[in-house]
Amino acid sequence: MTHAQRAAAGVTFPNGFRAGGVSTGIKRSGRPDLGIVLSDLPANAAGVFTTNVVRAAPVEIGERRLRSDASSLLGVLTVSGVANAMTGPEGVSDNEEVLTETERAFDLPRGSLLPACTGVIGPRLPVDRILAALPSLRAGVGAGREHADRAALAMLTTDTRPKEAAVRLRLRSGERVRIGGMAKGSGMIAPQLGPLHATTLGVLTTDAHVDAPDLAAVLEHEVDSTFNMVSVDGDTSTNDTVYLLANGAAGGPNAADDPAFRDGVHAVLESLARQVARDGEGATKLLTVRVHGAHTLTDARRAARAVVSSTLVKAALFGADPNVGRIACAVGYSGAKLDPTRLDVSIPRPHRSIPLIVDGRPADGLDNGGGRRLRDLLRQLDEVPLDVDLNAGRATATAWGCDLSYAYVQINAAYHS
Fold this sequence. Notes:
Strand content: 25-35%
Largest sheet: 10 strands, mixed
CATH class of the largest domain: Alpha Beta
Low-confidence stretches: 187-198
CATH superfamily of the largest domain: L-amino peptidase D-ALA esterase/amidase
Number of strands: 17
Structural class: alpha+beta
CATH architecture of the largest domain: 4-Layer Sandwich
């Protein structure tokens, strides 16, 4: 990116933010499962939520709180191990009690925290366990990198690693600002997030000043080309949530229209999206699909998402099977406008791309020695890039996914137990 410098840090990287995470015992492993991100200043906030009609209590509460007041929020409370979905009115009451008691424990105004939960669907929140852990959570909150790491760890379920990203940048008005973020996601990943709509969760922070309505527009726009372009297994969760808090600690005018700020938000979201895709349950390879030459942006996104979502493409990727017809099949049913006789697909390489499909047909040589060489290459790559050219226009889009391994079935067959 041209306007920002990447930084190895998370949600406490921007000025005026603290974080922490502790274990309440929800996870049998004893790993952190209760996390918090706090702003030292009242922050403008925005959120995008799952479009699944079956929506968890924290989604309903978070959406309602943002509708009520998006300009004086102070943080996000996360719980992992229990989704608090399909829990009825009791689930809402449980979550409201947890938020109220957390606000009281941290001396925060009522209604100033936003919720996010992830985990098994069905069970209610263990309210007593969470409330008992609040003194430890408060004592462990801080602005250091280790505190951001603890908050990121506290979001995880079947993830194998935390996911964090940050950038620093200079606005055209001269202010130096920072953007940080953390996310979780491993399975049940095919986010469909909208402005009012195992799980994708994301929390972004920035010390830039951005008015609340503009912040919502920025988040919605950038999520559409990042988190909404990730697919691990095609399932849209009941709990998908991404928040962005802007506390204005860096000063300056509203940064919403500054390309540097928008680029920075995009960079953090894209980094987190790639990390989510790479850490798909049981994944051994990251798949990056770049669609070129689409008639419209919608067509480009449809085609890219269809390829990364295809079970057959994912299985072929895991087995290093050079079955390029599966790619063409996914593009064909994606709904994108195309002439199948003009479809080109290749694997970009440093010196010369490797053609897989040319003018709608398998590239020469894939049925003999070329197929063996492609199989060997796929076995070597831990990230497989695909360039898909529809040759129908000028629109482009990128999507991220992963392969489908035996481990995915093992993990999800035993997830509840």
